[in-house]
Amino acid sequence: MRNGDYVAEICCGSFYDAKQAVLGGAERIELNSGLMLGGLTPTTATLSLVKERFPELKVIAMVRPRGAGFCYTEEEFLVMEKECQSLLENGADGIAFGCLKEDATLDEERNQRMTERIKRFDREAVFHRAFDCSDDPFRAMEQLIFMGVDRVLTSGAKATAWEGMDRIGELQRCFGDKIEILAGSGVNAANVCELIEKTGICQVHSSCKTWRMDPTTVRGSVSYSIASGEHECQYDVVSEHLVRRLVEKISAFGRK
After folding, report:
1. pLDDT digit string, tens, across residues 83-131
2. Quick one: which of 14, 4, 5 has its CA closest to 237?
């Protein structure tokens, strides 16, 4: 969704999620697989179907070969480069990525290679929340600007964007005229307007998550649960209703 300069990006893990985001009024998504691992590279089949059915939807595709952190082996990075190329060839409007060294500094060589590959397609280079694990966010932001990265997703180095609001606002004031700051983690219709107002950001990233039942998840002593408690036999999906509420809140804020 766009209203003036305000943008809501929805984090999606499937074609179903993308459809719910569109029905709720979103105009940009981040497309992943494996959201319970923090988001992994989606299949090209999923990307192609999303672009085929929703050609006006801007799709930023994740390139992340595994869960855990962001310090990759040579083999993992070779896969990342291949995935990046394939996703761009199959219509991704941008790529979300991020590589760190063991000391949590940016891996400048690898991030530069990814950025240059994306720019050869004239698409958007987005540095994901590996940024929040970097040792020095201000130095990292300067490096990403120099590389030509278009946007950075951040929670302000806290568990949620609400908790990291002060840092996000500081980053926006220091760098907002040079790179786009996208606030994510824990953003919803209840807090989005205050988050925008207090930080000065124009873009937010939200999962708008709900739960859906799969009764085959646990059978006897065999369990494929990805959650616990009441969600033991469920998996997370995007809610059209929650997307619409978020979009409406931002639209109303933009009209003020």
Report:
1. 999 999 999 999 999 999 999 999 999 999 999 999 999 999 999 999 9
2. 14
Q: Say how far apart CA 242 and CA 137 lie, in whole Å.
A: 31
Three-state DSSP class for 9? strand
pLDDT, one tens digit per residue, over 128-168 is 999 999 999 999 999 999 999 999 999 999 999 999 999 99
Distance in angstroms (rounded) separating the CA atoms of residues 27 and 25? 7
Residue 4 CB contacts under 8 Å (≥ 6 apart), including other chains: 254
pLDDT tier at 39, thresholds 50, 70, 90: very high
Strand partners of residue 176: none
Q: What is each CA distance from 103 to 66, 69, 136, in whole angstroms?
A: 19, 12, 11
The answer to whether 237 touches 14, Cβ cutoff 8 Å, is yes
pTM of the model: 0.96
Determine the residue type at 135: D
Token output for 156: 């302000």
Alpha helices in the chain (DSSP H): 15-23, 44-53, 74-89, 108-120, 137-147, 165-175, 192-199, 240-255
Pairing of strands 2-3, 203-206: unpaired
Residue 80, judged by CB atoms within 10 A of its CB (0-12, 13-18, 19+), counts as: buried
- 3-state class (DSSP) for residue 62: strand
